[in-house]
Write a structure and sequence with these properties.
Rossmann fold, N-(1-d-carboxylethyl)-l-norvaline Dehydrogenase, domain 2, 2 domains, 47% helix, 11% strand, globular, binds D-mannonic acid
Length: 499
């Protein structure tokens, strides 16, 4: 049997068991422009919009993707070949896979090749929302000061070349400037990254940039653009070879870049839009006046819980999050972290049962079918921990709460960054924009036990807190001397004073 390549034209010939878009993709308007079309956007927002188009034929809210980086060339090429279609593979814990071809993205612009096209797309009258998944590190602020980083060379470039931008801030201001000139309503900027108050952060960073470039425009943005805070959730591992094989074997379909995800999906959004919004509540999206409790709970439990498993997991040689969960030492350690360090600083969250939430996270992390690699979770740790974990340590230092679980993760991260190999001497796949800097700081451990903590925009003032320093020193020493994360984790969980 000849394998069918995914495209608009091939849709009617696909296996009839595979669900395909039933709406007229040619009639779709791009109400949403999305910057940063990675796996997560494709399993989450694009999936919700696909359902909106399928069930309600609301064609005003299609998506046009934009890539700002050279590394987006791969998705651009795949989308060119596949007419922006892709298969979403929802992997259930019992081994069942639900596969569906998603059609809500109907155009894609690689801005590095065509900056003006990207600006024009955002400035188009049909555009009502520009949404972002630009990663935790993409907001260009220092974690310790919270200030916009004007030293970034790309930011400097954008300030000097407003019509040829490189950064998201340059593109947003260029397109908003054009909308203002043409007397078009401003779009909403919808951040979908795992940062507490992601909308407020996006606003503050964009305004810092815009003020430097054009004060009047900055005032207009401040008045006209809404930046709702959001909480987004769906575990989406990196697409693996077996996922592609599965489509070939079960459906005779060749998809160059399908997306794999868990069944769980959640989106909570503050109902604050500049220029209308899709009726996503029809699909279970929660619109709330204040997203704070949801985002804090998710970031401090789910995202932090992931890092708490993945960093020692990588050192021990566990390949995936579910492998970590199968190891009782790891799953106990993670739950104790959640119960003893994250929960006390969260306090009570109205309308939420934190025990149920934590139990559900344990189930989701244990899904054996999803095989979420620890290397994905460890990627860009330098941007993640200042948002996911370090605030919990700081708040526990202030309240006199436990810090041993969180501190152990920072100690393990120091070893991880210094050595670049796990405890079996196997190379670690370290993906971090600041990899070299982290390595340099961590590597000086033998001469200066606190050298790693010198990266102050990651660790803030932790180095000057006596209780933290004592715990960190004790735990790094334990790791460097025993080279066995499991036994240290089990001692920490058992609350033994000595290691
Ligand atoms: C993960 C997230 O990257 C990470 O560290 O914790 O990607 C996580 O899987 C998603 O936020 C789930 O919604």
């Amino acid at each position: 049997m000849i394998t069918i390549t995914l495209s608009q034209q091939s849709l009617p010939s696909l296996d009839s068991n595979l669900s395909i878009p039933t709406y007229d993709r040619n009639a779709i308007k791009h109400g949403i422009i999305h910057i940063g079309v990675g796996g997560f956007h494709r399993s989450h927002q694009a999936y919700y919009i696909h359902q909106l188009l399928s069930k309600y034929k609301d064609l005003d809210w299609g998506v046009c993707g934009i890539g700002l980086r050279e590394s987006d060339r791969k998705i651009s090429n795949v989308f060119t070949e596949q007419d922006c279609l892709y298969t979403l593979i929802i992997q259930h814990p019992n081994g069942v896979d639900d596969c569906e071809v998603i059609g809500s993205i109907t155009d894609y612009v690689l801005a590095t090749d065509a900056p003006q096209d990207a600006i024009n797309k955002m400035a188009h009258p049909d555009t009502k929302i520009v949404s972002l998944t630009i990663t935790e590190g993409g907001y260009n602020f220092s974690s310790s000061t919270g200030k916009f980083d004007f030293d970034n060379p790309d930011v400097q470039h954008d300030l000097q070349n407003p019509a040829q931008p490189k950064t998201v801030f340059g593109y947003l201001t260029a397109s908003l400037r054009k909308r203002r000139e043409q007397d078009l309503a401003a779009f909403t900027i919808l951040s979908c990254d795992n940062i507490q108050h992601n909308g407020n952060v996006a606003k503050q960073m964009l305004l810092s940039f815009a003020k430097k470039q054009d004060k009047d425009l900055a005032d207009w943005i401040a008045q006209k653009v809404c930046f709702p805070n959001t909480m987004v959730d769906r575990i989406t591992p990196v697409t693996s070879e077996p996922a592609m094989k599965l489509l070939e074997e079960n459906y005779n379909l060749q998809d160059e870049w399908p997306v794999v995800c868990e069944p769980y999906i959640q989106w909570v959004i503050e109902d604050n839009f500049s220029n209308g919004r899709p009726p996503l509540e029809k699909l279970g999206v929660q619109f709330v006046p204040d997203v704070t409790p949801y985002e804090k709970m998710k970031i401090r439990l789910l995202n932090a819980g992931h890092s708490v498993l993945a960093i020692p997991g990588a050192l021990h040689g566990h390949p995936t999050i579910n492998a970590c969960m199968e190891d009782e030492v790891f799953s106990t350690f993670m739950r104790q972290f959640m119960d003893q360090e994250a929960t006390p600083v969260l306090g009570t969250i109205e309308g939420m049962n934190l025990t149920d939430y934590k139990n559900s996270l344990e189930e989701r992390f244990s899904n054996p079918n999803i095989k979420d690699s620890v290397s994905r979770i460890c990627s860009e740790t330098s941007a993640k921990l200042p948002k996911f974990l370090i605030p919990t340590i700081i708040e526990n230092l202030e309240s006199g709460g436990s810090i041993k679980y969180g501190t152990f993760i920072l100690a393990a991260w120091c070893y991880y960054s210094a050595k670049g190999v796990d405890f079996n001497n196997e190379p670690l796949e370290i993906i971090d924009a600041r990899k070299a800097e982290l390595h340099k700081a961590a590597e000086q451990y033998q001469e200066d036990k606190l050298s790693f903590l010198n990266i102050s925009d990651v660790f803030g003032e932790l180095k000057s807190n006596e209780r933290f320093v004592a715990e960190y020193t004790r735990l790094t020493h334990a790791i460097y001397t025993s080279m066995d994360v499991r036994s240290i984790m089990s001692s920490i969980s058992a609350d033994k004073g000595t290691l």
